[in-house]
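Hi support team,

I've been running sequence recovery on a batch of backbones for a student project. Most finish fine, but this one hangs at about 90% for roughly twenty minutes before it completes. I'm not sure whether the input is malformed or the queue is just slow. I've pasted the structure tokens below so you can try to reproduce it. Let me know if you need the job ID as well.

Thanks,
M.K.
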């Protein structure tokens, strides 16, 4: 039997997933969580096989999203495998989730039979990627010289949020000089010469939302 924890901040989504998975004989939803903190609390000390994790969790702490929860859960002793199930497919979301230790990444329009098969694969530790996600990762591998690193993607995302180099440095807990250095590489890789054009190019390429 595969024991699953569903993490999503929308009760209707959790109920729908529970209904879908309840029709299987080998998968049991043993718990639900609506926030990152709740997910980590449930996973701590529990014998879970798979955590089905939403990426954007709108709780009191904006930094405590699905990536935060994934990283915290994967840091536990004998952790369950985490399968991301989200509506977002930008490069920054995918790279952050993979870096946090997620074993798979699917979109919420995935057919139920594919989702069930993915949970079974995730339970064994097998990497599971939806077709659109796999295509984006392959494009990064095919063009390593122009693909932004995970940190560069984070800085682009921060640029889109707004703020000076000093403010971005404080948010990412790095030096202002490091932010400037990354920006030079980002300008070069995207072939632009301004912060505004960085954001436009990143959105056009689907690197950020």
């Amino acid at each position: 039997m595969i024991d699953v924890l569903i993490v999503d901040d929308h009760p209707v989504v959790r109920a729908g997933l529970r209904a879908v998975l309840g029709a299987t004989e080998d998968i049991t939803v043993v718990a639900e969580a609506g926030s990152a903190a709740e997910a980590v609390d449930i996973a701590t000390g529990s014998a879970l096989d798979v955590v089905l994790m939403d990426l954007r969790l709108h709780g009191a702490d904006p930094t405590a999203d699905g990536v935060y929860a994934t990283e915290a859960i994967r840091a536990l002793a004998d952790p369950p495998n985490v399968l991301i199930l989200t509506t977002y497919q930008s490069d920054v979301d995918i790279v952050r989730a993979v870096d946090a230790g997620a074993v798979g990444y699917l979109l919420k329009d995935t057919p139920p039979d594919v989702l069930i098969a993915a949970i079974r694969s995730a339970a064994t530790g097998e990497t599971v990627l939806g077709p659109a996600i796999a295509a984006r990762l392959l494009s990064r591998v095919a063009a390593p010289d122009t693909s932004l690193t995970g940190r560069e993607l984070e800085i682009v995302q921060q640029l889109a949020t707004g703020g000076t180099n000093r403010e971005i440095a404080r948010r990412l807990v790095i030096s202002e000089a490091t932010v400037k250095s990354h920006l030079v590489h980002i300008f070069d890789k995207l072939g632009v010469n301004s912060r505004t054009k960085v954001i436009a190019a990143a959105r056009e390429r689907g690197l950020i939302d």
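--
Follow-up from support: It reproduced on our side and the slowdown came from queue contention, not your input. The mean pLDDT is 91. No action needed from you.
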